[in-house]
Predict the 3D structure of the following.
Amino acid sequence: MLKARQLKKKYNNLEVLRGIDLEIHDKEVVSIVGASGAGKSTLLHILGTLDTADSGEVDVKGTNIQTLNPKKLAAFRNEEIGFIFQFHNLLPEFTAVENVCIPAFIKGDKHAQTKAIKLLETLGLSDRADHKPSELSGGEQQRVAVARALINEPSIVFADEPSGNLDSQSADELHKLFFNLRNELGQTFVIVTHNMELASMADRSLEIKDGIINTGK
Ligand code: ADP
């Protein structure tokens, strides 16, 4: 599903990533852990095509993303990759269902609305579809963000501290949701987290230490 080879990234003189090699398989839930400042978000952004490495390669579904021009990369990102952030980044003026539709509208999908409604139903949010984000709880807002990440049926979803801003009950529900979505839809997830419970639930947990994946050896 995803392969990264020898990813390196420097900020000024700070070598954040010093040669990351990793592989994510189809239908896996992989967590990325490490101390604050270890480079987890930097790695996630590079794997998710939101940022570029100084050197190294990323293949997603057999496409070497370095070879795509900006327009093709934007389309690839919209169709193949979903993102969930710590702060849901929903657009405040739009309802839940409208927020979920946005990536599908960008793609020109005529069935956006139907798909969004169905997804909200799957995520237990049918009765919240017409609410604006400010009218939803933190957990509900984050589930809307999950629906938005899933609407284009991406190959892989990246989540950056998705439960970092939630109370523990909402966090537990969100974590269970990821595994249900993997089991029911076969969705692949890569999740940066400080939450040790979530990290231990994952199929694999990768730790970044000193700019590389710590294999514990
Ligand atoms: P983590 O997600 O593990 O907390 P980050 O990937 O956010 O770590 O950051 C890793 C290091 O890179 C930190 O020291 C951070 O200050 C630095 N860093 C991240 N982004 C930038 C940037 N755009 N410019 C300069 N330094 C950055």
Q: What stands out?
A: The beta strands are 2-11, 14-24, 29-33, 55-60, 63-64, 81-84, 156-160, 188-192, 204-209, 212-214. Residues 91 and 209 are 35 Å apart (CA to CA).
